[in-house]
Amino acid sequence: MSRGNLFFILITFAAMGVGVLAPGIGQPLRHLPTVSLIVQLLLSFLSTAAPGASFSSKSAAGLPRFLLIRMLVVPVLCCVLFAAFLPQYALGAMLLAGASVGVVAPFFTMQARGDVIFVVAAVIVSSLVLPLTMPVLTLGYFALAGREAAGGLWMSFLRTGVALGIYIFLPFIAARLLWWKGQAAARGILRLSYILTVVGVGGSMFVIFSQYALPLRENPARVLEAFLAATLLGVIFIGVGMLAGLGRSTERKISYVVSMGTGNNVLMVILSSQFFGLNEVLITAMYSIPLFGLLLPYTWYGDRLRKKAAVAPV
After folding, report:
1. Residue 248 reports pLDDT greater than 90
2. Confidence bin at 54 (pLDDT 50/70/90)
3. Beta-carbon count within 10 A of 312 CB
4. Is the pTM of this model over 0.70?
5. Average pLDDT of 17-40?
6. pLDDT digit string (tens) for 159-180?
7. Residue 235 contacts by C-beta under 8 Å, 6 or more apart in sequence?
8. Rounded to whole angstroms, how far apart are CA atoms 118 and 48?
9. What is the mean pLDDT of residues 32-50?
10. How high does pLDDT run on average in the chain?
């Protein structure tokens, strides 16, 4: 584990704590998570569109299969498992498992030295199909549970999909323009990618946790329970990612594990607060801790795979 990765994790966790303890400070920064999302996508597009970076059909080979597992099979699996053992978090587990791949996944993949281009493609495609897959999952859950879904659920996911499409389109065009007309600026932005990521992610976590500081502070026992449930989800995601990557290259195995464990839980926190209950808000918010903490096992897994490949007989 490099000092840079350790610093990133410490800053992120510290920002969560400060957000809970001093929530009033976060109000003027309420738009920071959206800005950070766009900046992270811009950094991803700049790195994958740089001169010398190669993207081909081979780069996205296996993506449909992976996303079928990632956004449909795993959510159903997690929902069934949690319904059997932790039924109060079954819906929240399904929401987290079915979320689109998070925008920090390319950064995590770079740290673990995986296939960044594949992960960028996974972020884009999963964000665009989310408005189709998530309503099917949630409405199916409510139908099987004999409960009535909140009104406007489908339209909310549709609006979310449109917003995500815009957030993806704008930095994609900006990255192309920068490499076309302002290569010096593009390289300068990439040199600042680490500090931009640390500030953006840390600031976003501070704002999000400040918004939900009251339920977090008033329900310490339930917060701990939700954290343990979220950690269990992280273990499941890593296990499924390893299984899905069997037979793939070292870089692709790393990418599968990172993409499986790095979901857009911020979006799920927002939607949970609008349409679901406190348990869903807590588990989606608490997943922020294992989400960033998983950077440690990602890098360890990548190092282990490379060492194994280095000693394997040719």
Report:
1. yes
2. low
3. 7
4. yes
5. 88
6. 888 888 898 999 999 999 999 8
7. none
8. 10
9. 89
10. 90
Residues 6+ apart with CB under 8 A from 249: 115
Q: Tokens at residue 311, please?
A: 């000693």
Dist CA 259 CA 299 (whole Å): 13
25 by DSSP, 3-state: which? helix
| Mean pLDDT for the stretch of residues 2-31 | 89
Per-residue pLDDT for 251 more than 90? yes
Cβ neighbours around 199 below 10 Å, total? 16
**Helices within the chain (DSSP H only):** 3-21, 32-48, 63-68, 74-85, 90-97, 105-112, 116-145, 153-181, 183-191, 193-211, 213-218, 220-244, 250-261, 265-275, 278-286, 288-293, 295-311
Cβ-in-10-Å burial (0-12, 13-18, 19+) of 148 comes to exposed
- Which residues are CB-neighbours of 223 under 8 A, at least 6 positions away? 216, 282, 286
Q: How far is CA 85 from CA 82, 93, 145, 240, in A?
A: 5, 12, 16, 19
CA 98/CA 287 separation, integer angstroms: 13
Return the DSSP state at 71. I
What is the C-alpha to C-alpha distance for residues 131 and 125, in angstroms, rounded to an integer? 11
More confident residue, 230 or 52: 230
pLDDT at 36: 93
Structure tokens belonging to residue 253:
């195995």
Based on its alpha-carbon atoms, the radius of gyration of the chain, rounded to whole angstroms, reads: 19
List Cβ neighbours of 133 (8 Å cut-off, separation of 6 or more): 71, 72, 98
Segment 59-74 shows an average pLDDT of: 91
Q: Which two tokens stand for residue 252?
A: 């692709």
